[in-house]
Amino acid sequence: MVTEADCIFCKIVRGEIPSKKVYEDKDTLAFLDINPANPGHTLVVPKKHSEDITKSDEEDIAKVMRVVKNITTNLKEKMNAIGVNVMQNNGKPAGQIVAHTHFHVIPRYPNDVVVISYQRVQLSDEQLEEIRKKLSEEKKRSFDFDF
Ligand code: AMP
Ligand code: ZN
Fold first, then answer.
1. Sheet of 42-46, strand order
2. Is the CB of 94 under 6 A from ligand 1?
3. Residue 44 and residue 47: Cα distance in Å, rounded?
4. Where are the domains of the chain?
5. Tens-digit pLDDT profile for residues 106-125
6. Class for the domain spanning 8-118
7. Ligand 2 centroid vs 101 CA: distance in angstroms?
8. Which residues are catalytic?
9. What ligand is nearest to the CA atom of residue 16?
10. Does the CB atom of residue 19 touch ligand 1 within 6 A?
């Protein structure tokens, strides 16, 4: 487990290592990815350390998403992005390398070489329904409302 003391993004938040900041407030920091998929690739993080989104504070994520939205708009308006991917990896199997919750905001340009790919699987209506039930039961346990 990575502690706050050792965490590279916590070090960036504390100013112990340099970063190219594009936005900062009390709770949220956004900075350029050091090894970008495209120019303008930005990482948005809650300042409070959490290993991944499941361990994060809901309020912090809500604040982060506000910044993600604004950066997405800025990438289109100021960097002429023709599209933007928002990505968020949780756990090594999902490609997470840095164990501090973060969102990737990746601008897309004509003829770029960014590949975000997955193969689709076919599920029957019964299988979809079984999954839907499981997930809606989870939600009922954590929230007081249905949706
Ligand atoms: P992930 O695979 O989702 O954990 O992505 C981690 C991202 O952090 C990668 O895209 C790295 O290029 C980026 N990264 C790692 N160290 C730094 C750093 N010191 N400053 C900016 N970005 C970084
Ligand atoms: Zn951290």
1. 21-24, 28-32, 42-46, 103-108, 83-87
2. no
3. 9
4. 8-118
5. 999 999 999 999 999 999 99
6. alpha beta
7. 8
8. 102
9. 1
10. yes
